[in-house]
Amino acid sequence: MFATGIENSNPTIEGGRVRRDQMEECGHYARWQEDLALVAEIGCGFLRIGPPLHRTLLGPGRHDWDYADQVFAEMRRLRIVPIVDLCHFGLPDWLGDFQNPDFPAAFATYARAFAERFPWVQLYTPVNEMYITAVFSARYGWWNEQLSSDRGFVTALKHVVRANVLAMEAILEVRPDALFIQSESSEYFHADSPAAIGPAEIRNAERFLSLDLNYGVRVSSEMYDYLLDNGMTREEYRFFMQHRLKRWCIMGNDYYVTNEHLVSADGRTKASGEIFGYATITRQYHDRYRLPVMHTETNLQEGPRGDEAVQWLWKQWANVLRVRNDGMPIVGFTWFSLTDQVDWDTALRERNGRQNPLGLYDLDRRIRRVGQAYKKLIADWRDVLPAQSLCLQVPVHMLRDRDGWPEGEGRG
């Protein structure tokens, strides 16, 4: 699945007074027809996209489907397959933020309403980057609730993952053959000294929490104590262990040059740049969850040479081929996003209106060099890779689990 995405982040900043709606700031609302035509032109058969939650979910049982009705009808006409992103970093004002315990149930009801309105849609990412949502909102203090505490982080995490699980269940009741692609940030923390080994190990256990809870994988004893010490109850933990939906999931993992970190002895972190790279870190996640994989996000800003993004594209594609040739069932690749973004150089925390050259097209919808390179990559490879990786391995794996085989058995 060769994909791109419409950047639809919409968190709030400045104490909830300001919303950073990237679909508006990048011109998508005014130019959505042109954007979809560009997706078709570049050769992407799949598009990560979702209706803006804050504009669509107006209140309990109240929806404005105007955007979704128009855009999804056009995608269907163009035969672009949507991977529907229902919650991308922000909530409607009436729900507040991710500390709100009412969010999971309200979101599940919304997910069901979407599935009923668009029953032909099969692929979903209910909540985008659950780990990053919780970290940026409740540990770093950047977005939404703007908290900086372990308790705030655990509260956001348990609500976000519960919302994702309940949404998957609600969608499956409408469309039993739905598939869920968890677009989650794949992280690694390197110790910068022997004294930092302990803090780095804690961070490397913590990076799995969102997917552990989502897939019903038991966390380590240290992480269990951490969760309970910071507000998760035993009943809440048992909920995640009892709702095992792995059989309907593809592990989407995102990798950027910022995904690896150096940890110091006092637990502080800073960017390390690419050390292990996508292939090594993806193997760690695949070894833990044993699911089909999709590379669901990457990009790099064009620099003074003009070819930095193109080189990064080819490096990521080489990593995808490497893990595939090593036997990992990897089923897709994504350059995110279709167009340039605005103010992601400050993670949307500052309203500078600065265009970040990260897209396949700029904000005037002129193709960038990386867009030309991706178009060629798709044309060269789309008919070369055997269809078996998507059409055989994924369903066989899922059917075996659905038949009730114990985890890890009968896979020969």
TrEMBL record:
Under the heading Gene3D superfamilies, the entry gives: Glycosidases
The organism's place on the tree of life at top rank: Bacteria
Keywords recorded for this protein, A-Z: Hydrolase
Question: InterPro entries of this UniProt entry?
Answer: GH (IPR017853), Glyco_hydro_1 (IPR001360), Glycosyl_Hydrolase_39 (IPR051923)
Instruction: List all membrane-crossing ranges.
Output: none
Matching entries from Pfam families are given as: Glyco_hydro_1 (PF00232)
A single Gene Ontology molecular function, please?
A: hydrolase activity, hydrolyzing O-glycosyl compounds
**Keyword Hydrolase included in the entry's annotation:** yes
| Coiled coil, from the record | none
The record's Gene Ontology biological-process terms are: carbohydrate metabolic process
Give the protein's recorded name. Answer: Glycosyl hydrolase family 1
Please name the source species: Belnapia rosea
